[in-house]
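Batch job 17 of 40 flagged for manual review because the log was empty.
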Amino acid sequence: MIIFKTPELFREFVCDDVTHDVRVLATMFAVYMDSAYGRDVIVTSVLGGEPGVKRKSTTHEEGRAVDISAAGLPPVMGKSVSEWINRNFSTGAYFPEGDAMDACVFHDVGYGPHWHLQVAKGRPLIFKTRKHGDMVI
């Protein structure tokens, strides 16, 4: 289940300013966490940012990202979940230096460990299947 840290975060998540693809990615993340670990997920950021935290990108402001708390979870679990998401979902985008833009980044930028789920601007979310190849969501 997806739990929102505040009612305002739920309103942001369902508003037209947030892309459909990032909502799908967050929902699939929640399904995975429930089935693999029996855990709910807590959304801590959607369109806005945490006070005092300077962001490197505009993915949140553009409605292309959500943050999910990893508070109290072992770092190895954070990395493992991130790797699973990136094995199964792709943004289809690359940075100028050639690195792929991951759909899920596990990090701590000043307000606790969390997963940053993101989609690329102007590109569909891709679900990678082993049997049928890549599927656009």
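Reviewer: the log was empty due to a logging misconfiguration, but the result itself is present. The helical segments are 7-14, 20-37, 75-88. Unflagging and moving on to job 18.
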